[in-house]
TrEMBL record, chain A:
<feature type="transmembrane region" description="Helical">
    <location>
        <begin position="281"/>
        <end position="302"/>
    </location>
</feature>
<dbReference type="GO" id="GO:0055085">
    <property type="term" value="P:transmembrane transport"/>
</dbReference>
<dbReference type="Pfam" id="PF00528">
    <property type="entry name" value="BPD_transp_1"/>
</dbReference>
<dbReference type="InterPro" id="IPR035906">
    <property type="entry name" value="MetI-like_sf"/>
</dbReference>
<dbReference type="Pfam" id="PF19300">
    <property type="entry name" value="BPD_transp_1_N"/>
</dbReference>
<feature type="transmembrane region" description="Helical">
    <location>
        <begin position="176"/>
        <end position="201"/>
    </location>
</feature>
<protein>
    <submittedName>
        <fullName>Glutathione ABC transporter permease GsiC</fullName>
    </submittedName>
</protein>
<feature type="transmembrane region" description="Helical">
    <location>
        <begin position="12"/>
        <end position="30"/>
    </location>
</feature>
<keyword id="KW-0813">Transport</keyword>
From TrEMBL, chain B:
<dbReference type="InterPro" id="IPR025966">
    <property type="entry name" value="OppC_N"/>
</dbReference>
<dbReference type="GO" id="GO:0016887">
    <property type="term" value="F:ATP hydrolysis activity"/>
</dbReference>
<comment type="similarity">
    <text>Belongs to the ABC transporter superfamily.</text>
</comment>
<feature type="transmembrane region" description="Helical">
    <location>
        <begin position="76"/>
        <end position="102"/>
    </location>
</feature>
<keyword id="KW-0547">Nucleotide-binding</keyword>
<dbReference type="GO" id="GO:0005886">
    <property type="term" value="C:plasma membrane"/>
</dbReference>
<dbReference type="GO" id="GO:0015833">
    <property type="term" value="P:peptide transport"/>
</dbReference>
<comment type="similarity">
    <text>Belongs to the binding-protein-dependent transport system permease family.</text>
</comment>
<dbReference type="InterPro" id="IPR027417">
    <property type="entry name" value="P-loop_NTPase"/>
</dbReference>
Amino acid sequence: MAGYILKRLVSAIPVLLGISIIVFLIMAMIPGDPATAILGSYATPENVEKLNRDLGLDKPLVQRYFIWLGNMLQGDFGRSFSLNRPVIDEVLERFNGTLILAGTSFVICSLLGVAAGVVSAARQYGLADKLITFVVLLGISIPSFFLGMMMILIFAVNLKWFPVSGMWPIYGARDFAALVSHLTLPALALATVATGVIARLSRSAMLEVLRQDFIRTARAKGVRERGVIWRHALRAAMVSIIPVLGIQAGFVLSGAVYIEIVFQWPGVGRMLVDAILTRDILLVQGGVVFVAACYVMFNIAVDVAQSLLDPRIKT
Amino acid sequence: MSFLRLLARNRLALAGLIVMVCVVVLALITPLLPLADPNVTNTADRFQRPFTEGAALGTDHLGRDLLSRLLHGTRLSLAVGFAAAVIAATLGAAIGIVAGFYGGRTDNIIMRGVDMLMAFPYILLALAIVAALGPGLLNALIAVAAVNIPFFARNIRGVTVGIVHKEFVDAARLSGMSDLRIIVTEVLPNVIPVIVIAMSTTVGWMILETAGLSFLGLGSQPPVADLGSMLGEARSALITNPHTSVVPGTMILIIVMAINLLGDGVRDALDPRLKSGALNRPMPTTLVDRKGPVPQPKEGGALLSIDGLKTEFHVKDRVYKAVGGVTLSVRPGECLGLIGESGSGKSVTALSVMGLVASPPGVITGGAVHFEGQDLVGAPYAHLRKMRGDRVAYIFQDPLATLHPLYTVGDQLIEAVQSHHATPKSEARAHAIDLLKSVRIPNAEKRIDSYPHEMSGGMRQRVGIAMALANDPDVIIADEPTTALDVTVQAQILSLLDDLRRERGLAIVFITHDFGVVAQLCDRVAVMYAGRIVEEGPTDAILNAPSHPYTSRLMACVPELGGGRRELAAIPGLPPVVDRLPEGCAFADRCHKAQEACRRGEIELVDNGPSRTVRCIAPEPVTEAAQ
């Protein structure tokens, strides 16, 4: 198993390099002169030239990439000019918030989505199936930012069950209960679409598996229907559900940007949007590379989970 | 066109289509409608509620008419979403076709790049692109299109790879057509349906994503607004004036939902598996819709007796009569062979006993299955479940598919025991090891922790037998358990089954198409054809002197070892399709002795010598010598 993990980690290196190249190239597409973009159109030519030199922009593209990459590998993502602090400090601090939000949402959508899919498949064409199918359709069609706004309106403003926004109360203790009450609405809003997608895929994966011969064997053995569904069918269906969970994790992680804006949640997504609007290129660059790298690592974890679940995968 | 008809049959997809057509028509005629200018501000009339005079949906924070802004915004959102979909589909398909068509190094490099792009969380990449290009609706469109290109490229490449190796492409190559021409005339027409499906399932996403970027303030810039930026602008007034948020938000919901419904409909209509209803999951027991009375067992003393059993498959409006009134019985310790060609209904007969015929589409429509005098057809699920594996156990063909691939054989054996007897795990495990030993699996203590894929076919079949023996059943129904095995292993398994029968007094129903197996193992044999028993009797008697023409023709098909270069007689023709059974004898069309009377009326199973029956009006004579 350790060997397999190592192998997957090594295979991630070219992907990570590719990601850094893509981000670098996208940022290099910026029309016009980045220094002018940063300093504004009233900047003096001397200042523009100085900044270009400071940012290393006077060097050829390839050389610039390797300087950037080398610095990143040493933990130096550059300095955010709008916040006047190292990019990595800001990203790490903000990523914490995103991780709490997206992590919770991911747990919710995985559990709820798979459960809904299993129940739906087991009761195909029954009332539960129709109800779940309808809710799922609604869930995958509603924009998460609109859903979030409606949740604020209903559950925070009208019913006053949860706070309107933020991660912590402005006054009062920053304890677990406070976090949970602040987290509930945004986590649910963020999980909704992914829950729907996972439920749909789980349903069809289950239907596919339930037709297999080994399910008939389980029934012929006299296994109770609950065992047939949850132990036999779901276990086999998980093999095709887990990769979907991995993909949805990406949607949850990056979809957090909308929810962070709607709920004023201090996370990477909101930081990125602010950075884009203030043209803080280094902050965008650093944030995107960091989150994408984390996602690659997460996908390795998904692969490892898959290999633990399926003994047929050679480790 | 059948595709459109299928789509129309799906009511939800039709609803989606109608909504979508309305929205698109509304968006197209928006400039012609008598609406207020969407961008004229009138702060005196700000935040008017819906249904007020002169503003049907109210006004926003700058006093602009919401209805007018909504329709113009919808127009913009749809245009941008569709444009992004078309761009992504075109470029993605082009990349995918090139990669799939040329293969090799080109394919490798392109797909690596695509994999890299797909390694990004989707929205993050769009944000990076917008960050580089700067906020703006056109840039948001480019970003959304760009992040969707890999999805199309990968899908289309897969389809192209499948097409490139087809004969018609080879033929085009040999005829000297240029690559470009082959792509345009041979490949493209075949991938277009896939492109359409992929587009129909993603255009909703793209509308949502561009709306999202606009919502973040990175898409359309004021005063022009698409649905997303309307929602974004309304956010600050969410609590005081929710209607300004609800109006555009609901519109996005309606559009995306209609597209999703339509996309699902398109996919379902194009997916052939759904047409045949194959994606139905089988229920825990076979459906029973018994017409007519419950027959009583013909003879006493039988442990298991099947009486006039009828099992049908109802697919759409067709009825396949897989089992058309079968009567069979086994006594304790007896082995009954059930023989016939593929599709003759022998497996369905066997599965009907414990209600294991997949349903839908299977339905038991008549007859009875008595076990120890008690009818099992239509018995409650809980009762059947208790009998399954405990009193009546099955051994299936092809144990690679019939054993669960992700559990060790030990776990599967232990489960078989624990499903019927509350046994501690350690005890059940010891029992499982004993079972593996009893089916002569060497090194059972170690083998118990193997997964099915780690075993050979013969070993897996032994596991299947061990599982059937787990609860010491009274009857074992073995459905071609040796068909997938080579001859030596087959002989071992057969002698194993025979020993077990003698040791434990098991009754065995052995389904096969192999007369050799029947001769070796079975006391009696029943021959099935097109869902009915055509001949039944003691094995020796039937093998020595078959009296139904089908039996004798079937036996003539068996090559005999050392029998010289005898010509093997294949039976001419094919078995009848069981949804259109001919009147009279189903074998008449293939029978050399067929007469006029064979095709008229019901032909009964009649006595034909001591404990023999045959369903034929002109059976071969049974001589005394053959008895």
